[in-house]
Design brief:
By secondary structure, the protein is an alpha+beta fold. It has two domains: 4-152 and 315-435, FAD/NAD(P)-binding domain (3-Layer(bba) Sandwich); 161-311, Elongation Factor Tu (Ef-tu), domain 3 (Beta Barrel). It has helices at 11-22, 63-73, 77-84, 97-109, 140-150, 195-207, 228-232, 285-292, 317-320, 345-363, 376-385, 412-435; strands at 4-7, 27-30, 54-57, 86-87, 92-95, 114-117, 130-132, 155-161, 164-166, 176-177, 188-193, 260-266, 273-276, 303-305, 308-314, 326-327, 330-335. Strands 6-2-1-7-17-16 form a six-stranded mixed sheet, covered by helices on one side. α2 runs parallel beside α12 (412-435). The protein is globular, with a radius of gyration of 22 Å. It starts with a strand and ends with a helix.
Length: 439
Amino acid sequence: MSRVRVVGGGLAGVEAAHFLSGNGIEVDLFEMRPRAMTPAHKTGWLAELVCSNSFKGVDPLTAHGILKREMAGLGSLVLEVAEQTKVPAGKALAVDREAFSGRITAHIESSPLITTLREEFLVIDPALPTIIASGPLTSDALVSSLAGVTGTDRLFFYDAISPILDAESIDMGSAFFASRWSEGSDDYLNCPLDRDAYQGFVAELLDADRVQAHTFEDARYFESCLPIEVVAGRGSDALRFGTMRPVGLVDPKTGKRPFAVVQLRKENLKGNAYTMVGFQTRLTFPEQERVIRLIPALSHARFLRHGSIHRNTYLDSPRVLEQDLSLKGSPNLFLAGQITGVEGYMESAATGIMAGVSLLARLKSRPFSPPGADTALGALIHYITDRNTAGFQPTNTNFGIMEQPDVPKKGRAEVRSERADLSFTQWLKGLDDVLEWKD
């Protein structure tokens, strides 16, 4: 059977390589780091997490929880390692990023069927079975090659990275541990602000110097990952109803809900570093330090990593992708991860698995179709391949793209989760018969 290529050692790429090798397929996995770095990556590890260390919620009644359940059913390597390296994060699944990427790298590099090639992949050969999972920071050379195959121009928007702070520099006396709506939970460190402190913070945030986009870059932001200064510009209370919302929290010092709050989440198991939740920004580094130190509990904050902004390249997938994630007119060439227009760690990883499944079916000359749109995985693939989608914009998994059960609102979440589970289980059973995974 043909040897395949997987381009990109991020979450999507490692999932694709893991799935294919687990089904007896030899894989050449191309990753240009550390020989050629990106503006956001810091290491040469596979599956390096450059933004948050959170994989979001695990509640099976939520879209993110359903997606994780389906990924587990397909033998997700990312989920397996995430469970091994998780840190406390309330109802979310968060990991020690160094331990997570280290274990992923060790697993992939020890696989006898995977050859990891530390070199930049420059030219696509549509005749060879290939999965492009090069991520949001795809190199210029590969983007040019991909554009030549698809006949489309590259598109840009920006992901912003939240700062990470040294735990010892945080004024614990001005903060408190709690999770929203959860009694006795201490997974998040909350930094409260009164009205004056909040208004002063917003005023300085709006006046602060920002890193400007290059003239050749089209600065567009993913709506659910807006820089805090962009949100603040929408109104004086915009942050208080968004990233800095105080609902579900009570400051034990006052017995009342704060006017606004900044939440911090442990970055690692040691608890010596904290990420500012939802505080992605494009302020210059000096301005980040000045403005963030206006938050009372962070007045002496030491920055282990500043927030930053980086390019995210993706295709107009509804116009160029088939439902099996292959490129129209190039049946041996598949795409996965953020370059397809999915947004989020789990979403990227999930499309990597699905591209692996689809390519395996192609190699075995078997028919393949994705699960139904009443499943999280099926809905995500339908969204990025639906030709009727106008004004295509990247998206996370959410109930808005899933088929809705025609039942009363009360109990709808349970029904939706049960139906998704049944639909996915039936699809998986049929897939087992089609692909003969045990042969």
